[in-house]
Amino acid sequence: MKKLSLALVGLLTGFSGIANATLVHKYTFNEAGTAADSVGNADLTINGNATVAGGQLVLPGGGTRAHNASAAAAALSELAATINGSTAITMEMWFTQSQDSNWSKVFMAGQGFGDNYMDITPRRGNNNNVCSIALNLGSGESALSLTDTGAIANNTDYYVAAVWNQAANTMQMYLAKAGEPATAVTMSRSMDGKALSALIINEFYLGSAVQFGDGDFRGRIDEFRIYNNALTTADFDASCLAGPEISVANTPGPANNETLVFVDTDLQWQAPNAYTVDSYNIYIGDDPNMDDAARTVWAATSITPATDMGYALANDIKYYWRVDALEPNGLNQIVHTGDVWTFTTVPPVPVITSDPVSQTVNAGAVVSLGVTALNADTYTWYQSLDTIVDEADAVVGSGQSVQVAIDGIADEGWYYCKASSVIGSDTSAMARVMTKRLVGWWPLDGSLEDAIDTEITGAPSRDGSAETTNFVDGISGLGYKFLGDGKVVTIADSVEYYNFYTSGVTVSCWVSDQNPSIWDTVVSKEYNRNPDWAVASGYFLARSDFGAGAFGIRRSEVLSQGNLVSTGDGSWHLLTGVFDSDSKKMRIYVDGAFKSESNADPATFNQTNLAPLIFGAESTDGIIGSSSGMIDDVRIWSYPLDSWQVAQLYVDLVDAVICVQTPAGDLDGNCQIDLNDFVVIAQNWLESGNVKSANLQ
Question: Does this model's pTM top 0.85?
């Protein structure tokens, strides 16, 4: 961008809405690859992996003083002269933080050694002082922190202004979301008599600190301005509302890197706001270097390539395009080179753009499945009994959506759609459809067989296998004893079948263990536990290392524990884990009684799970959570049992009373309304807690 004389400053300040302000340095980052000072002569140097793109200074963060924009030589001297020669300095900036980083600076200038600096810090430590400005001349820091703004949100555009007013001996700070001055928070404090002329400026950074080992700022700076006087809150409101200057064409449509773009799509963009555009030069082609690009000059902000440029788009091509804006300047227009944007057109064959959704429903329900696709003429729906597309799959309907009656087990399975045209087809992802029922039951009475087919006619069963078996006396008949050697029971053909848990699941198992200090997993379908918890997927039921029941679905350390009943006392206890996708809650029950719950949003679960269902450890290799206890009667349901149903599981085998819900009229606390409650009423008959006037009877 051209340099502007101070005679033109009034035009620029008129643009921002600020009156009577002396703008001495401005960095718009509108010229790709440079950080030019468009008002003064203090151009900044881009360092490390920092870049200027899309009208912003892009800062990747990381090491100390590695990735930033800095001033050197004559530019540093000019900036130092501006600050040292002023009795008031105002700095305003638009920035976006992409990652929390304590003490990282968006701006800092001063001496590279000794406490002598001024700065703007979006996150001042971890003590909720979330944004600050500071001045230090070696005699202690004068810092102003906005503590009542709430944390700076990542990936959110902010406007910040800072004033160091030596004449008034005040520091002022203003912070708002970009374009929202009504949300601004402003604060001021004493400058403690410090003089700007005493600031030693031998380093000047955007994105780094001048002295300390603070990591570089990670995010973007949209524009940075310096005034040699004190702006007012009204000035800040006007700047925040107007936004940063944009001198290049921006906001492309199709969006940058967009895919599946139709070949008859118009190309659109937004005009710069820094001046009135004369015209645009448009370049487009399939060469990233733009060497073979078509070109035209156009005055509007939208074109149809085929008719306006004689350049018809074709299918399945990645296009590169650029819009250069031409600013009026007498006979010599100023060309503002735009960024190179890309988009990819749709292939000629059909492409599925949205897939059917898995569902778990009551038997007898009708489910609706649908897809969307490009370039498709026909849609055919299939039911598969596994996750493999093959010729044996039955056709169940046609059209973009289909209604399927799920009357029982025979209608369960994986449903998918094939979208077709005369030149090809595309197949959707599979949607799992199940009925709400018991889906696995291992009594462990001398075998590892799944007895679900004896409970529900026609239900597919999946038996277990183990290297060696060890049956012992259980809570009901026989049970199974693990030896702590990592040898597990593996359920056959269970990798895909037991992946319905994101739609709701209940896992129940009787356990007995005399070692309460070891994490002991009894049922698990968990994949990729090592080396990072955050990438693990699946679910488990366990006895924790302090003896509590534990149930978890892996995302980021999601765990719901019931720590009120020890399960490592050598007695038999029933552990039941429930995930309810409707309420987004995970619950743990011990001996039929609810113990605790935690939030669990299915959208955050790591969906991929390639592990089989196992008993006796958390990981399939037996290294993690290897059990040394006994288990009996393992059951899994395809939906969340309620508290009444869980309590019934326990009392079916143990003589006990479980209070699931206290009745409203229960006065003696025995979880039922009986004659004793009337006795309580009689004992307190006519007692009153009222205070009333003496003349009231």
Answer: no
